[in-house]
Amino acid sequence: MDINVRVIKSGRRTISLEVTPDCEVILRANRLTSRKEIERFIDSKADWINRNVRKAMKLKEERDRAISAGARLLNDEEIAALKRKASKIIPLRVKHYANIIGVEYGRIVIRYQKTRWGSCSGKHNLNFNCLLVNAPDEVLDYVVVHELCHILEMNHSPKFWEEVKKVIPDYKKHRKWLKDNGESLHMVQA
Predict the structure, then answer these.
(1) Are residues 96 and 169 in the same domain?
(2) CA distances (Å), 100 to each of 93, 97, 118, 143, in order?
(3) Residue 168: what are its φ and ψ, rounded to 5°?
(4) Of 14, 39, 69, which residue constitutes the final position of a domain?
(5) Taking a C-beta distance cutoff of 8 angstroms, is the pair 128, 147 a contact?
(6) Please, what is the angle between helix 158-167 and helix 171-181, to 10°?
(7) Who contacts 90 (Cβ-Cβ below 8 Å, separation ≥6)?
(8) In which element (H, E) is residue 136 found?
(9) Where is pLDDT greater, at 23 or 106?
(10) DSSP per residue over 77-133, as a string?
(11) How many domains does the chain have?
């Protein structure tokens, strides 16, 4: 697969890659990073890039099909309403599961994100996608538990997945639901 990579240089310290929902590959690097170093990095990540571009293309095709069938993307007003709703629901779920797992967390931020369902920072701050309130409750709970378990294990090692499984034994089913249906959460039937 022949893929163009857009390079954005700034004051950042690390190199990162992103595949956007529109299938664009963006590499971010420090201003002083050499072209040769960037090329080496891209070569070392070729499998990751190809896999994630294919995934983004599949999601884009699903979105385009849904729009052709009469769906439309959420508008700003609908997203704002989802954020308000999520701000009432998600913190309660986080508190509930944090007590079960036995972890403490920092801030909770609810936002609209195109590609992420949640994240956990090194300071144990949690971010959640407001779209989760339109997913089945079990799926929302899975994402909450997933992010809280990152407080115990900041990776996706077998040990991390064992922690998730202790609380959500059938987590794979909910993970699959997000993979199969997550794109539909960005849309409403017109």
Answers:
(1) yes
(2) 11, 5, 19, 15
(3) -125, 85
(4) 69
(5) yes
(6) 100
(7) 108, 110, 128, 132, 133, 140, 144
(8) none
(9) 106
(10) HHHHHHHHHHHHHHHHHHHHHHHHHT-----EEEE--SS-SEEE-TT--EEEEGGGG
(11) 2
Domain stop point among 69, 89, 116:
69
Mean pLDDT confidence for 74-85? 95
Q: Which amino acid is at 69?
A: A
Distance (Å, rounded) from C-alpha 23 to C-alpha 46? 15
Would the pLDDT of 130 be above 80? yes
Identify the pLDDT of residue 1.
Answer: 61
Residue reference for tokens 């995934």: 55
pTM value is 0.78
State how far the Cα of 7 lies from the Cα of 54, in Å rounded to an integer. Answer: 20
What pLDDT is attached to residue 100?
Answer: 97
Structure tokens belonging to residue 166: 């202790």
Domain limits for position 83:
74-189
Q: Parallel, antiparallel, or unpaired for β 16-19 and 25-30?
A: antiparallel
Cα–Cα separations (whole angstroms), residue 45 to 25, 39, 97 = 12, 10, 35
Distance CA 33, CA 54 (A): 28
Residues 59 and 94 in one domain: no
